[in-house]
Structure formats: structure tokens, C-alpha cells
Amino acid sequence: MQVIIFDNAQQVAENAAEWVAELINKKSNPVIGLATGSTPISLYHELVNKYKAGELSFSNTTSFNLDEYLGINEINQQSYRHFMNENLFNHVDINKLKTFLPTCNQGENPREQGLDYEDKIAQAGGIDLQILGIGANGHIGFNEPTSSLASRTRIKTLTQQTLNDNSRLFAADEFQPTLAMTMGIATILDARYVLLMATGKSKAKAVKDMVTGPLSAVCPASSLQLHENAIVLLDKEAASELEDHEYYVWADKQNVKINQEFGLYHNY
Ligand SMILES: O=P(O)(O)OC[C@H]1O[C@](O)(CO)[C@@H](O)[C@@H]1O
């Protein structure tokens, strides 16, 4: 696991955008795994800016999102489809027919729908680069603590902590889903590269558990310790509980070539 610490959240977003741009510019049919939540919004903003500046095109990109709520449809403003349209898809040249979220239609077998999602990922050639955030309880996607490390796309019940953390996004009288369809931990680990972004003090404990804690389903993000190409981009606050800082890379504005040093130029 490569941990890179930046001064602030904006630098995390800018650096993450470079990783994504490299993939998209380098590979003829890139497949990217996308995340929702507050953290990647600034990444998507950077990508839209790069697109508008003519620095990248999403026309050949296929995307798979980590998760989607159950019990609301995709035109609901709280759906992750709506989130992706608003924050990325509507502003770039991606073919929406090649953007996938793990939906679960009522009346159809959830297990089969999970397997279908896995099949779609496989047919696309697998995920080249998976973007991740992290929950304050260490979840990735909606794989809540105690999720099986061998899990694949399926329905998960959200924990009270996650519901509380996300309640800020829902009006008092609005329906807040308690179930979601999510890629499993094993699905995430199948990606060739994983890029996890974490910013803010509220993530510091989860980051510590992920990076230095035992490999444990209690902190699903600790599973990334098993991944050969996991990159963790942090701001100082999210890194504030990491000890032995000499093990990590500190980036600063002068060190803009950090990606080259740490092998951004990969063979996708
Ligand atoms: O970035 P936030 O809003 O703190 O969310 C943390 C995580 O929880 C989720 O919203 C649940 O999947 C993730 O998308 C996100 O990475």
C-alpha cells in the first residue's frame, strides 16, 4: 500500500485526477470504478475541468460504480445515478450506456442481479482503476464492518453509524434508504489499481486502522493491505493518527512530480 500525504484536500483531488487522466489517455478502452460520497466530488470537478480544457476525453471509457441505494429509483435526487450525472456524466463526453451502477430491480432475484453486475465488469475486461472513499467506520463501497473479505456484489444493510453520517444529505422528512447494492470486497480487490482518497479529521481513525491496523473485516478498508497496487491519497487531517510518518510520502506543492516517482506511468 502506497500512502501519500498532501497539505490539503484540493491537492488530493488534483493528484487523483492525474491518475484518472493517465489511465484514460493511455488505454484505448479504459474501465474505471467510480465512487460517490462527498470526498470524490472535487476529483470529478477536476476531471470536468480537464475535459473542458481538452486534456482528456471519456468517449471510450466504461465505468462501474461501487454502490447504489435500494428503495429509490434513479431519477430520485438521492440516487447515486443522479449524483454521478450531476457531478460527472452530464459534463463530459462519456457514453451513458457504458456507465453502470449496481441497481437492484424489485421483483427480480437480488443475487442474480449481483452476479450480472460482476459479469458486466468481467465482460468489459475488469476494472483498471477503482476510485474509493472510506467511511468513518472503515467501510469501502457499502461493505460495512464485518463484511466478508471474499464478498461479491450483493445487498448490504447500512449500519447506524453510516446512516447517521449520511443523514446530513437528507431532509428531515425525506426517505433515507437503509439498504444498498454494493460491489463486494473481493470485487474491489480484483481491480488492477485502487486509488483511495480520504480527507478530513473524521476519517483519521479509519485511515489508521486501514493502514496500520490488523487485516480484519472489522475495518473493511484494511483489505487493501492485500492489494499490490493500492494507492492512498490523504490530506494532513486524515493522516493525523498515522504514526511513524517516515514510512509515508509527504507531497508538497514543490513536489509536483510525485506521480513519476511513485510509478504513475503504469502498463494498464
Ligand atoms: O466521502 P464521504 O461522504 O465521507 O463518504 C464515505 C464513503 O461512504 C460512501 O458514501 C458509501 O459508499 C462511499 O461512497 C464513500 O466513499
Automatic annotation (TrEMBL):
Coiled coil: none annotated. Keywords: Allosteric enzyme, Carbohydrate metabolism, Hydrolase. Residues 9-228 form the Glucosamine/galactosamine-6-phosphate isomerase domain. The active site is at 67 (proton acceptor), 137 (for ring-opening step), 139 (proton acceptor), 144 (for ring-opening step). Allosterically activated by N-acetylglucosamine 6-phosphate (GlcNAc6P). Its EC number is 3.5.99.6. Gene3D superfamilies: 3.40.50.1360. It comes from the Bacteria. One of its GO terms (cellular component) is cytoplasm. One of its GO terms (biological process) is N-acetylneuraminate catabolic process. It catalyses: alpha-D-glucosamine 6-phosphate + H2O = beta-D-fructose 6-phosphate + NH4(+). One of its GO terms (molecular function) is glucosamine-6-phosphate deaminase activity. Pathway: Amino-sugar metabolism; N-acetylneuraminate degradation; D-fructose 6-phosphate from N-acetylneuraminate: step 5/5. The record marks 147, 154, 156-157 as: Part of the allosteric site. It is an enzyme of class 3 (hydrolase). Catalyzes the reversible isomerization-deamination of glucosamine 6-phosphate (GlcN6P) to form fructose 6-phosphate (Fru6P) and ammonium ion. Homohexamer. Belongs to the glucosamine/galactosamine-6-phosphate isomerase family. NagB subfamily. This is Glucosamine-6-phosphate deaminase. The gene is nagB.
